[in-house]
Design a protein that fits this description.
Distance between the termini of chain B: 43 Å
Structural class of chain A: alpha/beta
Helix content of chain A: 25-40%
Number of strands of chain A: 11
CATH topology of one domain in chain A: Amidase signature (AS) enzymes
CATH architecture of one domain in chain A: Alpha-Beta Complex
Strand content of chain A: 5-15%
Strand order of the largest sheet of chain A: 1-3-2-4-6-5-10-11-9-7-8
Strand order of the largest sheet of chain B: 1-2
Number of helices of chain B: 3
Largest sheet of chain B: 2 strands, antiparallel
CATH class of one domain in chain A: Alpha Beta
Number of helices of chain A: 16
Order of helices and strands of chain A: HHHEHEHEHEHEEHEHEHHHHEHHEEH
Shape of chain A: globular
Largest sheet of chain A: 11 strands, mixed
Number of strands of chain B: 2
Radius of gyration of chain A: 21 Å
Oligomer: heterodimer
CATH superfamily of one domain in chain A: Amidase signature (AS) domain
C-alpha cells in the first residue's frame, strides 16, 4: 500500500487511466497514511467515507473510459475553501461548526474533473500567519527535522497543512491560497512545489476572504508537472467572482518543454537583503548557474521599491481584512457569545472568536482606515503598490521571468517567532511583492541547508504567463534533482 | 509610541472587539510596533502617483440585477446561532 502513495500525481493519473491501479485502492492507501500521520496535525477534518464513495464513482467512470483530467486523484483541501455539507471553519473559533451550503468554484472544478476529497487541511486562522501557529486547531508539525535534532519545526504558513500533507505523502496534491506568500513560503519550508497563479486566474468565490485584492488560490504539489495539471483544473472564468479573468485556460502541461534556450531570466539585486542566510545566497547563485547552463540568458534588473513592499502589504492586507471580517458578528454563522445588548453581543463574540493575530490585524486595519488616517496610511500604501507594480513592468521590458530565493531562512522551530510579529512578517519579504503586483510565482525545492532542511527558489512571471513560469520551473526542478525526503518519524 | 491605550480602546470599539483593561497596554505596544515600522513608507515620494485600484488591469463587469438562484432561505439560515421562521434572530434592538 505504501508504494501507491509514492506515486506523484501525473504518475498516478496515468496508471489510473491505464487501469493498472484503481481509485479505490489508491484512496484507501491515502486514508491509511492519513490515519498514521495524525501527529502532524495536517488535517483538521478527515472525510474517509466520502473519499471512498467518490473513489468508487471514479472507478466506474474510469472503467467506461469516461474519466476527467483528475479522475480518482485524492486531494487535500485547505480549510479556507468552502465545501458543501463538509465543515469549513478557516481554522477560526468564530466559525465553529460552520457547514457551507455551497461549494467553492475551485473545488467544484476539481470534483468536476474527477478528483477525490480526502479531507480539510489546517491553516493559520483566516490565513493570517506564516507558520500555521495561529490556527485554532493547533500548530501543524513540519515532516522535516534538522539533522540529528528532533526539535519540532513549523511547515510555513498560512497553508501549513497543505504543505505538510504533500511533504508527508498524505495527499497526492493540495489546494492552498496565497495572499502574501502563503503557498510559496510553506512549499519552500517542506521541499514541495507551490504555485501562486496570476490574480484573477483562479476564482476566489467560496474561498473565505482575507484580503480580497491579494488573495489567490493555487496548488501545492510534489512536482512542477503536478502543479501544471492542478492549475489547469482549478483555473477558469467564473462570473461569480468579479475579478476572475475571462480568458481561455491553456494546457499548462504542454508548456513543460524543458527548453529555455534564449529565455531572459532577471536577477533583482534588491533581493540580496541583510540577514539572509549565506546558504540561501549560494543556492540562488546555483540556480542562476543552472538556468544559464540550460541556455537562458541572465539579466541584472532592479526593483527599487522592494524594501517598501512589506510595509505596504501590512497596511493593505489588514485594511481589507478588517472590512472582510466584519461579517463575523455572531448572527449568521458560527460562534455567538451573548451580551447585554446587540452591540455587546458583537463585541463579546468577536473577542472570544478571534485569535490574537487576527485581532491585531483587524485592529491595525481599522486604525489605518479610520477618519484622519485613511490618506496617510491606506492611500499612501496603494500608491507605493503602484510603484512596485511599475518596477516589475520595467524589469519585464528586459526579461521574461525573475529568479529569487523564496524565503530568507529555512523552517524555524514551533514557538520561536510567535511573540515577535514583526520578525514573523519578515518571512514573506521575497513573496509579498508578487501579490502586490498580482503576478504569478512558483517555489521549487532546490537544495538542502547545512542542517538538512529544504530550501526553495522562486520564479516570478509576467501577468497570465504561467506557461513560461512553469516551463522555467520545470528546468530548474530537473537541474536541482531534489530527491531528499523526510524520514517518516510520525508513523508510530 | 504611536498608539496609546485610549486609541486602542477606540479602535477596538470601532472593530467591535471587546478588549479588557489589562489587555490595552499589550495591544498598544504591538500596534505601535507595526505602525512605527510601516512609517518608513513616508520616505517614498508618491506625489505624482495614482493609488492602485486593481492588481490586474480589467474592466468591472456588470450583470442584470435579477434573481438567478432558487429560494435558499433554509440553506442560508441553517448555520445561524439563532434562526426562527426563516429569519435570523438577534437580541432586541428596538424597545
Amino acid at each position: 500500500m505504501t508504494e501507491l502513495t509514492k506515486l506523484n500525481l501525473a504518475e498516478a493519473r496515468d496508471k489510473l487511466v491505464a487501469k493498472e491501479i484503481t481509485a479505490q485502492e489508491l484512496t484507501q492507501a491515502y486514508v491509511s497514511a492519513i490515519e498514521a500521520a495524525r501527529p502532524l496535525n495536517a488535517y483538521v477534518l478527515e472525510t474517509a467515507d466520502k473519499a471512498i464513495e467518490m473513489a468508487k464513482a471514479s472507478d466506474a467512470r474510469l472503467q467506461k473510459g469516461e474519466g476527467g483530467a483528475l479522475e480518482g486523484v485524492p486531494l487535500g483541501i485547505k480549510d479556507l475553501f468552502c465545501t458543501k455539507d463538509v465543515r469549513t471553519t478557516a481554522c477560526s473559533h468564530i466559525l465553529d461548526g460552520y457547514v457551507p451550503a455551497y461549494e467553492s468554484t475551485v473545488t467544484a472544478n476539481l470534483w468536476a474533473d474527477g478528483a477525490v476529497l480526502l479531507g480539510k487541511l489546517n491553516n493559520d486562522e483566516f490565513a493570517m500567519g506564516s507558520s500555521n501557529e495561529t490556527s485554532y486547531e493547533g500548530a501543524v508539525v513540519n515532516p522535516w527535522r534538522r539533522e540529528g535534532d528532533d526539535t519540532q519545526l513549523v511547515p510555513g504558513g498560512s497553508s501549513g497543512g497543505s504543505s505538510a500533507a504533500v511533504a508527508a505523502e498524505i495527499a497526492l496534491a493540495t489546494t492552498a491560497t496565497d495572499t502574501g506568500g502563503s503557498i510559496r513560503q510553506p512549499a519552500a519550508f517542506t521541499g514541495t512545489v507551490g504555485l501562486k497563479p496570476t490574480y484573477g486566474r483562479c476564482s476566489r468565490w467560496g474561498v473565505v476572504a482575507f484580503a480580497s485584492s491579494l488573495d489567490q488560490p493555487g496548488p501545492i504539489t510534489r512536482t512542477v508537472r503536478d502543479a501544471a495539471v492542478m492549475l489547469k483544473s482549478m483555473a477558469g472564468f467564473d462570473p461569480k467572482d468579479t475579478t476572475s479573468v475571462d480568458a481561455p485556460v491553456p494546457d499548462y502541461e504542454t508548456a513543460l518543454t524543458g527548453d529555455i534556450r534564449g529565455l531572459k531570466v532577471g536577477i533583482p539585486k534588491e533581493y540580496r537583503v541583510d540577514g539572509m542566510a549565506a546558504e540561501i545566497d549560494s543556492l540562488w547563485q546555483q540556480g542562476i548557474d543552472w538556468l544559464k547552463q540550460a541556455g537562458a540568458e541572465i539579466v541584472d534588473v532592479s526593483l527599487p521599491h522592494t524594501k517598501y513592499a512589506l510595509p505596504a502589504y501590512y497596511i493593505v492586507a489588514p485594511a481589507e481584512a478588517s472590512s472582510n471580517l466584519a461579517r463575523y458578528d455572531g448572527v449568521r454563522y458560527g460562534l455567538r457569545v451573548d451580551g447585554e445588548n446587540i452591540s455587546d453581543m458583537y463585541e463579546q463574540t468577536r473577542a472570544a472568536g478571534f485569535g490574537d493575530e487576527v485581532k491585531r490585524r483587524v485592529m491595525v486595519g481599522t486604525y489605518v482606515l479610520s477618519a484622519g488616517y485613511y490618506d496617510a496610511y491606506y492611500i499612501k500604501a496603494q500608491k507605493v503598490r503602484t510603484l512596485i507594480a511599475q518596477d516589475f513592468a520595467q524589469a519585464y521590458e528586459k526579461c521574461d521571468v525573475l529568479l529569487t530565493p523564496t524565503t530568507p531562512t529555512p523552517a524555524f522551530g514551533i514557538g520561536e517567532k510567535l511573540d515577535d510579529p514583526l520578525s514573523m512578517y519578515l518571512n514573506d519579504v521575497f513573496t509579498v511583492p508578487a501579490n502586490l503586483a498580482g503576478l504569478p510565482g512558483i517555489s521549487v525545492p532546490a537544495g538542502l541547508s547545512a542542517n538538512g532542511l529544504p530550501l526553495g527558489l522562486q520564479l516570478i512571471g509576467k501577468t497570465f504567463d504561467e506557461e513560461t513560469l512553469l516551463r522555467a520551473a520545470g528546468v530548474l526542478e530537473e537541474a536541482a534533482a531534489f530527491t531528499a525526503a523526510p524520514e517518516a518519524w510520525w508513523r508510530a | 509610541m504611536s498608539v496609546d491605550q485610549n486609541t486602542v480602546r477606540k479602535v477596538a470599539h470601532l472593530a467591535r472587539i471587546a478588549v479588557q483593561e489589562d489587555e490595552l497596554d499589550h495591544f498598544a505596544k504591538e500596534m505601535s510596533t507595526i505602525l512605527d515600522w510601516v512609517e518608513q513608507l513616508s520616505e517614498v515620494n508618491t506625489d505624482q502617483v495614482e493609488p492602485m485600484t486593481s492588481a490586474v488591469a480589467q474592466n468591472m463587469r456588470v450583470r442584470a440585477d435579477e434573481v438567478t438562484s432558487p429560494p435558499l432561505r433554509d440553506e442560508v439560515t441553517r448555520n445561524a446561532s439563532g434562526a426562527e421562521d426563516g429569519f435570523f434572530a438577534v437580541p432586541k434592538v428596538v424597545e
